[in-house]
Amino acid sequence: MKTLPTTVKGTFSPELTGHLAARLGEGETRIRKVLDAAVPLVLGAIVRRAQSGAALQVHTLSLQALRKAPACANPVTCALGMLGSGPAAGGALRQAEVLLFALFGAEATQVAGPLGACSGVRPATAEALLKLVGAVAAATLGQHIAAQHATAAELAVGLAGLKEPVAELLAATPPAVRAMLEPLGDKRAPGSGLMGAMQQEGGLRKLHVRVGQSLLALVGAVTGAAYCWNAVCGVAAATYWAADALPGLKPAVPVALLRLGTMGIFAW
């Protein structure tokens, strides 16, 4: 699984780039720019989709893409066969459309725009190359799944390990392309929230100190309140005892204080 980015990127070799340029009527340099941006974009979207809890969907679509891919030993011939299938129902590019919609949702039709803008190719060329990259990436992932008999859960773990290498590939793409996958993981800023505080340097120790200080303050407040209550009850109880021992003082003691004294005796 760790070799997936290298395998997909290696499929679009200079030889294939030349064939695609001749087939689509574009310059090789521009085709190369589209591919260099589209490969990490699609791989990053696959990783993001699997991390969002849709690993089973990625698993299913990858195996379907593998079945739609033409049977051939040469990656160049295989990719050209995918491109040649065009929008035909049941073809590899049509299956790639399903994949792209699952990865990008309603924005799938707009993804090719930034790719064409950053490379200078025609919109139709950018769209065709994006679908081709999607078909190749999904079929390659399907090969890994089939070879390893990987479950959806195992696939999710494997794709999670691709986040860093894919992020490195994305770093070399134009900002408009990276923006379609930012953030690749958690949308919160680094260091935000409880987990962010714990992940910062010394964050866990500071958290322990803060929790300890809060608990000490709470215990102190409760202890202080209990001490004051005991003191009041003690004075009231002593007054009650004095009034009971000296009946002559009893009329001068307020009824509320006598009742509090009775409570104080039981509290003690």
Structural summary, described in words:
With 268 residues, this protein is mainly alpha-helical. The chain contains 13 helices and no strands. It has helices at 4-11, 14-24, 28-68, 75-85, 92-104, 112-119, 123-148, 152-160, 163-170, 175-178, 193-199, 203-245, 255-267. The longest helix has 43 residues, at 203-245. It is globular and about 40 Å long. The relative contact order is 0.12.
Major sheet summary line: none
How many helical elements? 13
* Overall outline: globular
Unreliably modeled segments? 185-209, 263-268
The class by helix and strand makeup works out as: mainly alpha
Instruction: Determine the fraction of residues in helical runs and give it as a percent range.
Output: over 70%
Q: How many DSSP-defined strands?
A: 0
Order of helices and strands: HHHHHHHHHHHHH
The average pLDDT is 79
Distance between the termini: 71 Å
Rg, Cα atoms, Å: 35 Å
Sheet-strand content, in percent, reads: under 5%
